[in-house]
Amino acid sequence: MEQEILYAKKWDKSAKYFYETKRYDWMAEKLTEYKTILEIGCGTGYSTLALVEAGHTVISVDKNSFCISKAKELVESEGIESQVQFIEGDIAESAFRNYLKENYSYDMVICWNVGTYWTKEMLEFYLPYMIEYGLTVQKIEENPESSYAELIVWETCRLAAESNVPIQIVDRGTEPIYFETDPYYKNLGVEFGYIKVYYDNLEADSISNTGCMLSTNGVVDDSERVRIVLISVIFE
To answer: Where's the Methyltransferase domain (predicted)?
Structure first.
């Protein structure tokens, strides 16, 4: 519980920075034709706020109850709570994915900037899921964060495909990604039966040492600001 609270506080600072620098606006501007958005990983609500401001109704999911609480406080303070439904749950679990499919209607699924904290217990819990997805124990142990992110993106794509709706993934990287240089996403789209893929990249930065610490290839960067590339990939 202590780790959940600490992560919620740190991510709140990072997410607020993305909101104030209009990074979430850049992500949301690609979704204008879709009314209701299923948001996998709402964090503390700043991405949700940007989506509502862009004209969407939002179904926001997060497994961290403290993130959900902060997100609810934020949207209530902005007077937009009628435009958002918050659901606590873990997209890695099939029962929860089925619950979403059976009980909610949405036009688009998004997964922006996957992240979480790590404990020994969490690694033990997610290890079977990540192995089932196709990762090796060695890769998982070397970089649990990226392994977890791959799992969540994969499960989100599976949910979107089974719901017969498009999906937008936004990730953080160090270099732009295009169709010709894409080592991962276009194969992911093919796996789930999507026939169109659209890429966009934005040179940006993120706070690190005062928010959620960023890492590259498992190496943590404790700089105040870290240069990143935001990568948007849409499957239709």
So the answer is: 37-121
The H or E element spanning position 204 is: strand 197-207
Residue 90 makes CB contacts below 8 A (sequence gap 6+) with 63, 96
Residue 175 in tokens: 């270099």
What whole-number distance in Å separates Cα of residue 171 and Cα of residue 36?
21
Single pTM value for the model: 0.93
Spacing of C-alpha 146 from chain mean position? 12
Contact between 226 and 214 under an 8 Å Cβ cutoff? The reply is yes
The C-alpha atoms of residue 139 and residue 39 are separated, in whole angstroms, by: 28
47 pLDDT above the threshold of 90: yes
For 109, phi then psi, to 5°, come to -110, 135
**What does the block give as tokens for 45?**
């609500």
The answer to whether 166 and 196 have CB atoms below 8 angstroms apart is no
Query: 199: which strand partners?
Result: 233
Cβ distance 60 to 85 under 8 Å?
yes
